[in-house]
Design brief:
The complex is a heteropentamer.
Chain A (H helix, E strand, L loop, with lengths): L4 H21 L3 H26 L3 H31 L13
Helix pairs in contact in A: 1-2, 2-3
Chain B lengths: L1 H20 L8 H27 L3 E11 L2 E9 L1 H24 L6 H20 L3 H19 L6 H32 L4 H7 L5 H18 L7 H5 L5 H10 L4 H8 L1 H6 L1 H24 L3 H21 L3 H28 L17 H15 L5 H15 L3 H26 L17 H16 L4 H8 L13 H26 L17 H7 L4 H47 L7 H27 L1 H10 L3
Chain E lengths: L1 H22 L3 H21 L3 H26 L12 H19 L20 H9 L4 H22 L12 H14 L2
Helix pairs in contact in E: 1-2, 2-3
The chains are: A mainly alpha, B mainly alpha, C mainly alpha, D mainly alpha, E mainly alpha.
Chain lengths: ~100, ~650, ~500, ~525, ~190
């Protein structure tokens, strides 16, 4: 049973879907950010796999930059959470709906 | 000669404007005298023109200026003085001069004295335009102008609800007819290419009969309105709300005869379509009888005379319809004199009786108002057609016309109507001037009118008596323009039998009326007598329920329909749709804005949902693309 | 063994990097200044930023000259792609930034402007956007986009009040999800074509004759979702009103212009070749998206009670309107996009600046939000000139001739009509009519209602300073006399778009 | 100066309005009157210099605006537009002069001057976009006038007025762009110039669609049934001056545009849609007249009467022959004068009593005889009495349309009946009868300022009713040009038949080189 | 065969870990699961021969990112159980599985156009890190530098947001407070 590109793509998709579940059901912002990390990571698997099967390095490059981006997002995201937490002492997004309509 | 033409035409206008200057100021005699004098000038000019036309046979045709010119349409302000119009001019100026002078006295105590003369002279001006115009559009100007003045004068005492109502009724009803006239004019223009009488009539023989018939019908519809023919007759009786001189001038002598004038003027057209002529004649005969029947029982002096006017208009139409245009015009002229006289006399009575109109409340007035009594009696005799007064020559001629043309039904109807005419005329005279002095019961002290009013009426009296004498000269003159058919009963015996028979019939009717209404036991009817409860009486006193029908089924329906149009259709449906669209948009916004709950989780869900929606569309499309061959075969298998 | 790669400096075309490097250097300069001497007044940084952007602008003019002479320039291992779209959009980005940065010179003191980091981040953000538009490599697009976005989130939060934090967090979180979508979409295209460069993707797909259409569509869906987020297309728009409301009016105005033009350029590069290759699905989806975005945003804007929020929805609607250009995909429509956006930036600059100068620090009791309609009731009585100018901007936004936006609308509608999108043109026209209502609502409040609370009009210029007024005057003149410049603009834009092959 | 007279006519009031901001509040009225008078004199000068023997455009000016897209500032005047321009200048003048005491009068006068710019602009524009520009721009001052000085529902009314018209004209804009696109297809150049478009012969199906697109814009402006419901609100709520200008000039934009755009551009479509439009016009005439009869507010009566009269104008326009079109143009002017005067008159009584409900009046004829007289004259003009200005237009319009359809003209002719019904009953309610309300007993009659507006209108009403030639002649000349153009351009058999061949070489038509494919 | 076993094993493990990460209510569990998942992903990278990527993954995620999150968790005091109000679960699950299903349906099919030529082919016998380095500093030099800028931005952002600068809001202070604050500042820093 040869593991082909499609296997990786399917895996990647499943992980992506799990990430989506997390994004949608999490109310705790910190844990919501976990889910966004899952999204990005799941795509990385595919990039690496495609790169491998095509014998092309571009995919790895992409994955590399995705990792960099994910790291930066964490920094900014945490910064925002800290500011919010300082003022409100919680990081639940349900408390965050002063603007609506 | 043009000078006389313009003088005749414009001096009433000058008079009107002169009086209008004093419109808002308190009553000044001069506002009455100057217009009257100017009308005198107009009368003199007309007379000069008449003499000119009569003696030389020349006609006068001037074009003052262009009115409208566009495309192929060219309408000037053109005036023509020919044998027909000069007769009308004479009638108009003469009667109006008399009425003006009379009104100086009659309106003496009225606040709106100045205004009155302004309107009255304006009317004469419009009437002069109507009769003198050389084209249909000019005729229409006068046509509408007299309508306007009639509106102003009927509603002269505008504080009276009934007067302003009657004014509006008259105007609107005339407008209905005017639409017909307008359509007739359009037809004339598009078929003959011109609205000038001479050009249009010259082109008509080459048109097909159907077109001509339509033209004839539409023009006659116009005439029906102005001359108050059935079914547009109701306004005339109501128009009696106006001051009596107005009734005399407008609603007896001149304006209402405009319809007859139109038919006479359009004789070249109606010559070509005898079927329409027959219809006109039949309608005329019907109206003659119809109106006379309503006059029999009416208890309003002025209305009785109005119905009699209506009846006489029927006679004129009967004559015109049968092709006897000169006869119609002759009766028009004669009728103008004696009917105006009758009305003015009635005005005197009204004054004497402090605006009381019910003849049953009068009686015996002959003793205190000798002059008026004489004049009204003469006028009634003339109306009844007793030899040798004017009515005999004109009205009996119409009977002859009907007889000679073998329209025996029309003849019979007209003959019967003649009897009725005599009866109701003398019913009136008897009730007013003879018998018990019932007015005393109401504490009224009647008095004779001003002398000069009686003097002013005297020309009419004279003409009512002698107008028949002009017949020969008149005939010679107008037949240069109108068909000169002579109407003689072939055998002399028949002629004498007819004439004398008619005279006897009329005489009997007069006698019967006198006998019935000079009795001592005449009471003011109180609705209890047997006659008053009979069906026929009720039918007649209610004018065959026609006004009731109009009010109930047309006026009310129109009002209610208008209300429905406004509140239901315009506001609810038309505007409601517009506002509805706006409201739907706004409500959609209000209901869907909950999508923007402000909750981050919801927002994320929306984003994912959007993506999934796009994905599902993509999958459907992708699958369809991939399996397009299979799908096609399945679909074809299903017979799609 | 890997052989060393020999490249000549000339072949790298390092000049292509100049416009992006200038703001980066400027940002570093600001940080360095702060390092050595802190507590400087904001005017220093504003002017410095303005100067740097000015230099950047000149560099762009230079690139434009090169482009006109030589056609599309690629550089640095074909990573940079300087074509007409890149130049035009950079003109808009830098130009709009120059117009917006003086808005920091407010009368009142606001948190963000007291820190030089704000200006540094601002310049970094501009560089990020510039990278994003000046390449067709998805990696660089992604990195540039994230650089700009991360800076932008921070700029929003730096306003330092609850609503701005909330706005930043919302924007950030959704942005993170969109980033996930972007990478997934890119991955799909990479899987299909083995390339992450748009022109090569196009070439390979063309060669395959779109054999894996389903696969392509999955990629399109994810990229569409990601750019739909940036361009705030319904239903990815939900962040827009909240973020605009949470940020300062100045920044909100900025956000309605600059990030969107960057996203438009990428969308144009990405989607137009697909549409031209006959991917009907995309056409249908874009059609629906355009119509939904215009209509729904308009409908929601109708029911707003806050002017800034209304303007947020209105800019969603405008973005939808302009999105039609990508759907139509002709030279005329792409030119119309630029023309529209240039004119739109003037008008929106003006309207948001008007809100900005009326910004109070503390809300009076009768006022629900910073810029509620009630605040502007009866404005004409106390500040007629300001009211007239505000009305002018509203009329321009509504597309009333001869004000700026009318010409953009005109040309855009014409583009739609000329390409057979008649129904779309009608829908666009009718949407303009719906939009008329909420713009009018503000005019009605200003001109026809009585003030809720009697005031002396100070509230409408509470935050005004001379530079702000100058900017507004500039915007107003630009809005009124746009018709003089339209011809030159149109010719200029068409030249660049046409020469880029779009 | 004559070379640029049209631009001066357009921009002089606008410039004056801007300078007006500087003028002191107490002197603004004199300033406004002075400016409007100068404008009116300029308009008269234009008339004086106008050559009635030329059917085409005169005093043309052209400035490139967006040449890359074929948009140019082109203005010109012919017999069709000349008198509406004069009328606009005239009404602005007497409108400002007769203004009563109002709040914020400075703003009002400045707004009126801006409005004047847009009004003149619409009627002289010969480029579709410039036309559209002024067309849309005219909404703004009117919006402000209604919204700021109007009655209790003023905001609803003004917004409705604005949005309704705006919506329609956007559809029209799409049509214009289509037209330009066709021109582009045919010739390779972009052009929005009307005279260029005149040379284009379009296939019938395109004509029909474009006609419909333009129709939306124009019909809402006219306003035609069923798009008329903004009008009663706008009139009902607007201040007197607003109603006057709206009725006298702004509504004419729609009918003018029909003649300027729809007929010559789409002759076949005009023939194709003649019957449906005529039916709409007849509904307008009868239905709105009946609605007018049901009104309780005198201003609403006049407002609905406007719609009714506009129906006759539309009918005349779609007579497609010289008589009808000339009549409809004349009726535009006539209706402008008469309905303008009627709105003035309603304003007079409103100023005194602050109510417009007819039930509040009654017997005014004895209290205010001069007022009643002028009202009476205008009433008679409104019902189309001969020798008043309205009759000439109505007569010619109906006469013209009679050529096309007998039955429909007969139905439309009921205008003269239904018009009389609502007008007379309104007059009766207000002026006849006895004075029942105490407030009415001592109402002052019209004052000098009001007479300044009313006397000239009365004079015009009668003068042009008796002697319409000075207007009819130039109008006729230009209309002949248009009808000739239409006849030559039309392609369908029916259109050739319906549109008469005047067969006069107008020297206007140069057979087009670019026919649309 | 080895590859298959490894793939399925790690696939199962990653899915399980990430599942735990998004479903558990214990923040600590979630964090640990996430970290574990990240490490398992790096295993794929190694399987696929992307050694450099694998190393970066472990360093950046399991090292930097996790440390940052752990710090954050402590700061937010979310070590205890996190209570989350759950809305409609069906929507969440439904949307996600639908999305997964759709993509899988298409992705599972083989890619038709398999004639793809590598643009930057891997060189036999050269270490992955070297290859990556080669490309990173030629073709991807610009993105690399931009990424550096991005990290700088993130750093500045983190410092600004989390630091003391945001403690006092100048936006919310009224003018008098601002004046007094200035005075005090002058006193502190004369």
């Amino acid at each position: 049973m040869e593991i082909g590109l499609n296997h990786y793509l399917v895996l990647s998709t499943i992980l992506f879907a799990i990430g989506l579940v997390g994004v949608m059901r999490r109310k705790n912002l910190l844990m919501l950010f976990f889910a966004t990390e899952i999204l990005l990571n799941s795509v990385n698997i595919s990039f690496a796999a495609i790169s491998h099967y095509y014998g092309d390095l571009t995919g790895q490059m992409f994955a590399f930059f995705v990792i960099a981006i994910a790291a930066s997002e964490v920094a900014v995201g945490l910064g925002l959470l800290i500011v919010w937490h300082k003022k409100h002492n919680n990081i639940d997004l349900d408390n965050m709906s002063s603007m609506r309509g | 000669m043009e000078l006389f033409l313009y003088t005749a035409l414009f001096s009433p206008l000058v008079g009107s404007l002169f009086a209008a200057l004093f419109g808002a100021s308190p009553k000044t005699k001069i506002a009455g005298i100057v217009p009257s004098a100017l009308l005198g000038v107009s009368l003199i000019s007309s007379t000069i023109l008449l003499i000119l036309v009569f003696t030389t046979g020349h006609t006068l045709h001037v074009e003052m200026m262009t009115w409208m010119a566009t495309g192929d349409l060219y309408i000037p302000f053109g005036f023509v003085v020919d044998q027909v119009s000069v007769v009308m001019m004479m009638v108009v100026t003469l009667v109006s001069t008399v009425v003006h002078v009379y009104a100086v006295g009659y309106m003496d105590h009225d606040k709106g004295f100045n205004r009155f003369f302004s309107y009255l002279s304006a009317f004469v001006f419009s009437m002069m335009i109507l009769v003198m115009s050389d084209n249909f559009a000019g005729l229409f100007i006068g046509w509408e102008g007299v309508g306007l003045c009639s509106w102003l004068l009927i509603g002269f005492w505008y504080h009276k609800e009934s007067a302003s109502w009657a004014a509006n009724e008259a105007f609107i009803m005339n407008r209905i007819a005017d639409l017909g006239m307008l359509i007739g004019i359009f037809l004339v223009y598009w078929n003959t290419g011109t609205l000038q009488y001479d050009g249009a009539f010259a082109a008509m023989p080459s048109l097909d009969t159907a077109t001509l018939t339509w033209i004839g019908i539409f023009l006659f519809i116009g005439a029906m309105g102005k001359s108050a023919q059935f079914p547009l007759h109701t306004w005339l009786a109501d128009a009696m709300e106006g001051p009596t001189p107005v009734s005399a001038l407008i609603h007896a002598a001149t304006m209402v005869t405009a319809g007859v004038y139109l038919v006479v003027r359009s004789s070249p057209l109606y010559e070509l379509i005898p079927n329409v002529g027959l219809f006109i004649a039949s309608l005329g005969a019907f109206v003659a009888l119809f109106a006379a029947s309503m006059a029999l029982v009416n208890r309003d002096m002025k209305r009785v005379i109005a119905y009699s006017t209506l009846s006489q208009l029927g006679y004129m139409f009967a004559a015109a319809g049968l092709g006897a245009y000169w006869v119609a015009l002759f009766h028009l002229m004669a009728h103008a004199f004696f009917k105006a006289l009758l009305f003015l006399g009635a005005g005197n009575v009204m004054h004497a009786m402090h605006d009381e109109l019910d003849p049953f409340k009068m009686g015996g007035l002959g003793k205190v108002m000798k002059g008026t009594f004489v004049m009204m009696t003469v006028a009634s005799v003339a109306l009844a057609g007793i030899f040798p007064l004017a009515g005999f020559f004109s009205k009996d001629l119409i009977l002859e016309v009907a007889f000679v043309n073998h329209h025996y039904v029309i003849y019979a109807v007209l003959l019967f109507t003649a009897a009725l005419t005599a009866f109701y005329s003398f019913r009136l005279v008897a009730l007013i001037f003879h018998g018990e002095e019932r007015y005393k019961l109401f504490g009224i002290h009647p008095h004779e009118a001003y002398k000069f009013m009686l003097v002013a009426m005297s020309p009419l009296l004279l003409l009512a008596v002698i107008a028949g004498a002009f017949k020969a000269g008149y005939f010679d003159m107008v037949t240069q323009l109108l068909p000169d058919t002579e109407y003689h009963v072939h055998s002399a015996a028949t002629y004498w039998i007819m004439t004398i028979g008619t005279q006897l019939l009329v005489g009997f009717a007069i006698f019967y009326a006198y006998k019935k209404y000079t009795r001592r036991d005449i009471k003011v009817p109180d609705g209890t007598s047997k006659m008053e409860n009979s069906f026929a009486y009720k039918l007649l006193i209610n004018q065959y329920y026609i006004p009731y029908f109009y009010e109930e089924y047309i006026v009310k329906a129109y009002r209610e329909l208008s209300e429905i149009f406004w509140t239901k259709i315009d506001q609810k449906i038309v505007d409601g749709t517009v506002d509805g669209i706006a409201n739907i948009l706004y409500k959609t916004g209000n209901t869907t804005r909950v999508m923007q709950s402000g909750n981050l989780s919801t927002m994320l869900k929306w984003m994912v949902a959007g993506t999934v929606a796009l994905l599902s569309l993509a999958v459907v499309f992708g699958l369809a693309a991939r399996y397009s061959g299979e799908i096609k075969s399945i679909l074809s298998g299903l017979g799609v | 063994m890997l052989s060393p790669i020999n490249v000549s400096i000339e072949s790298l075309n390092l000049m292509t990097l100049a416009p992006m490097l200038i703001p980066i250097i400027g940002a570093l300069l600001i940080i360095v200044i702060d390092l050595f001497k802190s507590e400087q007044d904001k005017t220093l940084y504003v002017m410095l930023s303005l100067l740097i952007l000015g230099v950047d602008f000149v560099a762009l003019v230079d690139s434009a000259g090169l482009f006109l002479d030589n056609g599309t320039i690629t550089g640095v291992f074909d990573m940079m792609l300087i074509d007409g779209l890149a130049i035009l959009s950079q003109f808009i980005i830098v130009g709009a930034s120059m117009l917006f940065i003086p808005l920091a010179l407010t009368h009142k003191r606001f948190h963000e402007f007291s820190y030089p980091e704000f200006f540094a981040l601002f310049l970094f953000m501009i560089a990020g956007f510039q990278f994003m538009v000046a390449t067709d490599n998805l990696i660089l697009i992604f990195v540039g986009l994230e650089t700009a976005s991360l800076a932008l989130y921070t700029l929003i939060a730096m306003h330092n009040r609850d609503k701005s934090f909330e706005a930043a967090v919302k924007y950030f979180t959704m942005g993170a999800l969109a980033a996930g979508f972007f990478s997934f979409g890119s991955m799909v295209f990479y899987a299909l074509t083995g390339s992450v460069e748009i022109n090569q993707i196009a070439a390979v797909l063309e060669a395959n004759n779109y054999a894996d259409i389903g696969f392509v569509l999955v990629g399109v869906v994810f990229l569409l979702a990601s750019f739909g987020f940036k361009l705030s297309m319904v239903p990815f728009h939900t962040w827009t009103p909240d973020v605009y409301e949470g940020s300062s009016a100045a920044l909100a105005g900025y956000m309605s212009i600059v990030p969107k033009i960057a996203a438009f350029i990428v969308a144009m590069r990405l989607f137009e070749f697909l549409i031209h290759s006959g991917v009907v699905w995309l056409e249908v989806i874009l059609y629906m998206g355009v119509v939904m975005t215009m209509t729904m945003a308009n409908i929601w804007a109708l029911v707003q009670t806050d002017v800034k929020r209304m303007l947020a929805y209105s800019s969603i609607s405008h973005a939808g309107f302009v999105m039609a250009a990508i759907l139509i995909g002709t030279t005329q429509s792409n030119s119309a996009l630029f023309l529209y956006w240039i004119l739109f930036s003037f008008t929106n600059l003006g309207s948001f600046s008007m809100l900005w100068i009326s910004r109070q620090k503390n809300l009076p009791a009768h006022q629900q939000s910073d810029h509620s309609y009630d605040k502007f009731a009866g404005m004409v009585k106390t500040s007629p000139v300001a009211a007239s100018i505000m009305a002018l901007f509203m009329l321009s936004l509504a597309g009333l001739p001869p004000f700026a936006l009318f010409w953009g609308k005109l040309y855009m509608l014409s583009a739609a009509v000329s390409s057979g999108y008649t129904v779309l043109a009608l829908i666009m026209a009718l949407n303009s009519a719906i939009a008329g209502y909420y713009y009018l609502k503000l005019i009605v409040y200003m001109f026809m209602k009585d003030p809720v609370v009697e005031n002396n009009g100070h509230v409408y210029s509470a935050n005004a300073t001379l530079p702000l007024k100058t900017i507004i005057g500039f915007a107003a003149i630009g809005t009124i006399f746009a018709f003089i410049a339209v011809n030159q603009l149109l010719e200029f834009v068409t030249l660049f778009v046409y020469n880029s092959g779009y | 100066m004559l070379d640029h007279i049209l631009s001066i006519l357009i921009f002089f009031p606008a410039l004056a309005a801007i300078l007006g901001f500087v003028v002191n509040k107490n002197s603004i009225r004199s300033y406004g009157v002075a400016v409007a008078t100068v404008e009116f004199l300029l308009a008269l000068w234009l008339w004086f210099a106008f050559d009635s023997n030329v059917s085409g455009m005169q005093f043309m000016e052209q400035i490139a605006l967006v040449p890359a897209f074929g948009i140019n500032y082109i203005v010109g005047v012919d017999g069709i537009s000349l008198f509406i321009i004069i009328l606009a200048a005239f009404f602005t003048m007497i409108g400002i002069a007769s203004l009563g005491e109002m709040k914020d009068i400075k703003n009002l006068i400045i707004t009126l001057l801006f409005l004047q710019m847009t009004m003149v602009g619409v009627f002289v524009a010969l480029d579709a976009i410039v036309f559209y520009l002024f067309w849309e721009l005219s909404l703004v001052p009117m919006l402000y006038i209604i919204g700021a000085w109007g009655g209790p529902l003023r905001i609803y009314a003004s917004v409705k007025f604005f949005l309704y018209t705006f919506t329609g004209s956007l559809v029209m804009l799409v049509g214009m762009l289509f037209m330009a696109y066709f021109y582009h297809q045919a010739t390779g150049d972009w052009s929005f110039a009307l005279l260029d478009w005149y040379r284009l012969i379009l296939p019938e199906s395109f004509q029909n669609w474009l006609f419909v697109a333009f129709f939306f814009g124009f019909a809402i402006k006219v306003p035609m049934f069923p798009f008329h419901t903004w009008l009663p609100y706008a009139h009902g709520q607007a201040p007197t001056i607003g109603s006057v200008i709206l009725a006298a000039i702004l509504l004419k934009m729609g009918t003018y545009a029909f003649i300027r755009f729809s007929l010559p551009l789409f002759p076949d479509a005009s023939v194709y849609f003649m019957y449906p439009i005529a039916v709409l016009a007849i509904i307008m005439i009868i239905y709105t007249a009946m609605v007018a009869y049901a009104q309780k507010d005198i201003k609403q009566v006049v407002a609905y009467s406007s719609v009714s009269h506009m129906g006759v104008i539309i009918l005349g326009t779609f007579a497609l022959n010289v008589e009808g079109i000339t009549g409809s143009i004349f009726l535009m002017i006539a209706h402008g004068v008469v309905s303008g005067a009627l709105f003035f008159l309603v304003g007079v009584i409103y100023d005194r009593r602050h109510t417009k409900l007819m039930s509040e009046f009654g017997g005014l004829a004895s209290v205010m005889p001069r007022y009643a007289t002028i009202f009476g004259i205008m009433l008679m003009a409104s019902v189309g009495l001969p020798l008043t200005i309205n009759f000439v237009g109505e007569f010619l319009s109906l006469l013209g349309f009679y050529k096309q359809s007998h039955i429909l003209t007969l139905l439309a002719g009921t205008a003269i009946i239904v018009g009389a019904i609502y007008m007379l009953s309104a007059y009766k309610k207000m002026f006849f009868g006895v004075v029942t309300k105490d407030e009415n007993r001592n109402l002052p009659d019209v004052n000098k300022k009001e007479l300044f507006a009313l006397i000239p209108l009365t004079v015009i009403t009668i003068w042009l009713g008796v002697y319409p030639k000075p207007l009819l002649e130039p109008i006729n000349k230009s209309v002949e040009g248009i009808v000739t153009l239409m006849h030559e351009k039309s392609i369908s058999e029916e259109a050739k038949l319906r549109i008469p061949n005047i067969n006069k070489d107008m020297g206007l038509i140069t057979k087009s080189s670019g026919e649309a494919h | 065969m080895f590859e298959a076993i490894a793939f399925y094993l790690f696939a199962f493990l990653t899915i399980a870990m990430f599942y735990v990460a998004v479903t558990t209510s214990q923040a600590l569990y979630a964090l640990s699961a996430l970290a574990a998942g990240m490490i398992f992903i790096s295993a794929f990278f190694f399987i696929l021969g992307a050694d450099f990527l694998g190393a970066v993954q472990i360093v950046v995620y399991s090292g930097a990112v996790m440390a940052l999150y752990a710090f954050g968790m402590m700061f937010f005091d979310t070590t205890r159980e996190v209570k989350e109000k759950q809305g409609n679960k069906a929507i969440v699950i439904g949307l996600s599985s639908l999305a997964a299903l759709m993509v899988v349906v298409i992705v599972a099919a083989p890619i038709v156009g398999n004639n793809i030529e590598a643009i930057y082919p891997m060189t036999e016998g050269v270490g992955n890190t070297q290859e990556v380095g080669m490309i990173l500093f030629t073709k991807y030099l610009v993105p690399f530098e931009v990424a550096a800028v991005m990290l700088l931005v993130a750093m500045i952002a983190g410092i600004v947001l989390a630091g003391k600068k945001m403690d006092l809001s100048l936006t919310l202070m009224n003018d008098t407070d601002l004046m007094t604050m200035k005075e005090e500042d002058k006193k502190v820093h004369p």
